[in-house]
Amino acid sequence: MTPVDCSSADTLAAAPPRSGSAVALVLIALAMGGFSIGITEFAAMSILPDFATGLGVDEPTAGHAISAYAAGVVVGAPILAAFGARLPRWLLLVGLMGMFAIANTLSALSLNFGTMLVFRFLGGLPHGAYFGVAALVAASVVPLEFRTRAVSTVLMGLTVATVLGVPVVNIISQTWGWRWTFGIVGVLAVLTMTLVALFAPRDPAHPDASPLRELSALKNRQVWLTLGVSAIGFGGMFAVYAYLASTLREVTGVGPHILPWVFAVFGVGMFSGNILGAWAGDRFGFKAAAGVLIWSAVALALYPLASQNLISMMVVVLCIGAGGGLGSILQTRLMDVAGEAQTLAAALNHSAFNTANALGPLLAGAALTAGFGWGATAWVGVALTLGGLAVWVWAALDGRRAQP
Q: How far is CA 55 from CA 4, 256, 262, 380, in A?
C-alpha cells in the first residue's frame, strides 16, 4: 500500500502560515489536554491501593476501574470521532474536554465501587477522540516533515503528567485522600477548554465530512494491523504499571513516601522515550516501532530480577517508561494509511492504546489471582509486547506485498 500524502489530504491540509509563537500556543493548549488525561489515566493506577481501601475492595478488583476507563476509551473514540466529524475541530475538542471534566468530577464523588466503575467508564469516552483530533490539529500547523514531532508534543502533555502530575497527586492522595486526584483533573479539563477555545485554529469542518466517510477507515487492513500493534504491544507496559505500587510495597519493600519518586522516574522514561520516538518516527517511519517494541520486551524481562532492589528497580522502570515512545510513531503511521478517514483512524489509535490499558492489567491481575506472584506481571508484559512485535512483522510484510 502506498502511503497517503498527508500534506494533500483534506484533513491535514496545509494551514495558512503561522508564526512560531502562534504554533507554540496551539501546541501548548493541546498538550494541556494530554496533561489532564495523563493524570487521570496514570494516577488512577498509582493510587489504586488507596481507592481500593477507600471503596472497600481488594487491589485486583480495584484494577477493574482501570479497565472500565480503558473500555470507555475503546467505545467512545470511534463513536465520538465519527459523529463529531461535521464539527470544526476546535469546537469538538472543547466539547470533549467538557465531557471529561464532568466525568472526573463525578468520579471524585463516587459513593461506592459500582458508581466508580460507571464514572470511570464515562471518563474514558472522550479520551481517544480528544487525542486523535488534537493530533490532527497539531500536524496541520507544522510542515509535513515535522508532523511526528508535533503529534508527540500533544502526547508530551501526557508524559509530563507522568513525571510531575502523577507524583504530585500521589502525594495529595496520601495526604488528603484519593478523591482529590479526580477533582484536580476536572479543574485541568476546564483549563484545557479555555486554552483550546482561545488558541486553536478556527478551521471549518470539511464540507464532505460525515460518519460514513470516516468509517471508510475500517475497510483498510493496514489501519487494523497498525491498531493491532498498539492494542497488544502497549499492553506489556500497562501490565506492569497497573501493579507497580503494589510490587514496590510487597516485593521491593519501600514505604508510601518512596512511591511518588518511582512513578516520577517512570515519567522521565516516558518523556525521554516520547522525544526519541518522535525523532525516530520522522527519520525511520514505521520501522522505528519495531525497535521500541524490542526495547520494551527486554526491559520488561529484567523487571522481576530488579524488583528486590530499589535502585535497580528505578533503572528498569525508567527503561519500561521509555517504551511509551511507540505512541507517536503509530499515530503518524495511521495518518499515512487512513486515506480520507483521518479523524476516526487517529482516534482509534487511542482505542487500541486503551485496549492495551484494559488487557494488560486484566491478564496481569489474572496471573496474580492464580498465585503466580508479583513478578508474573512482567512476564505477562513480555508476552504482550512480543505479540505486538509479531503484528508489526505482519503489517510490514503486508504493506510490502501491497506496494506496486
A: 49, 19, 25, 27
Q: Which position has the higher pLDDT, 403 or 130?
A: 130
Q: Which are the contacts of 264, defined by CB distance < 8 A and separation ≥ 6?
A: 162, 163, 164, 166, 167
Kindly state the cell numbers that stand for 210: 460525515
Domains contained in the chain, CATH given: 10-402 (1.20.1250.20)
Residues 6+ apart with CB under 8 A from 229: 289, 293, 326, 330, 388, 391, 392, 395
Only one residue has cell 515535522, namely: 146
What's the Cα-to-Cα distance from 314 to each of 120, 321, 380, rounded to whole Å? Answer: 29, 10, 20
**Per-residue pLDDT at 87 exceeds 90:** no
Residues written for the chain: 404
Compute CA distances 294 → 15, 301, 322, 332, 333, whole Å. 37, 11, 12, 20, 18
Residue 216 pLDDT greater than 70, yes or no = no
Residues 6+ apart with CB under 8 A from 371: none
CB 196 within 8 A of CB 30: yes
The Cα 135–Cα 159 span in angstroms is 15
Concatenated DSSP letters of 118-173? HHHHHHHTTHHHHHHHHHHHHHHTS-GGGHHHHHHHHHHHHHHIIIIIHHHHHHHH
